[in-house]
Amino acid sequence: MMRIDSNDEDVSLFDAEEDAAPKSKKSSINSFIACMVTIILLLSCDFWTVKNITGRLMVGLRWWNQVDDNGENHWVFEARKRTAKQQSGDSESRIFWLGLVVCPVLWVIFFFSTLISFKIKWLAVVIMGVVLQGANLYGYVRCKVGGKTSLKNMATNYLGRQFLKQTVSKDDEM
What pLDDT, in 10s, does the model give residues 28-77? Predict the structure, then answer.
């Protein structure tokens, strides 16, 4: 026969009978971690999808890092030549580039709002967003311009052409 001891207390396995204040703080930390992990997983999925699928299908661009036998990194940037069939996808291309530019801008805005509001715990998530979205933008811009062409040279050439156009148009007016 089992003897029931009157001094035994029911002890909760997960400390359910703690004070309400520490429990709410503990639950707040758990919800922050859950949000952080979820956001980083979604960012990673977005990065992979845009890099490996969307860019290749919508605009014909792809990029990756290749390690050779000597252990050196080589960045490869490819652009598919456009055909008449692919010319019809200009609206898709615009949507792709708009999304590719807007997302890093939003993450930079989040970065500054995080700093201004002193919510430092969210800084890791925001930095991950800036890095992943910025890497995709940089990779696709390098694909579009050409892997060998320096972005600085491209900007210099563009500004030179604009200056030349303005100079020629002023000469025509005189």
Answer: 778 888 999 999 999 999 999 998 888 888 888 888 888 888 888 888 88
User: Exposed/middle/buried for 86, CB within 10 Å: 0-12, 13-18, 19+?
Assistant: middle
Q: Is 154 exposed, middle or buried (0-12, 13-18, 19+ CB in 10 A)?
A: middle
Q: CA–CA distance from 41 to each of 33, 44, 108, 128 (Å)?
A: 12, 5, 19, 11
- Yes or no: say if 26 and 34 are a contact pair by the CB < 8 Å rule: no
Instruction: List the structure tokens of 139.
Output: 């990779």
Determine the Cα–Cα distance for residues 42 and 48; give it in Å rounded to an integer: 10
- Least confident piece of the model among 8-17, 76-85, 160-169: 8-17
Instruction: Of 47-61, 69-83, 97-111, 146-160, give the lowest mean pLDDT range.
Output: 146-160
Residue 65 in contact with residue 52, Cβ under 8 Å?
A: no
Tell me the C-alpha distance between 48 and 40, whole Å.
12
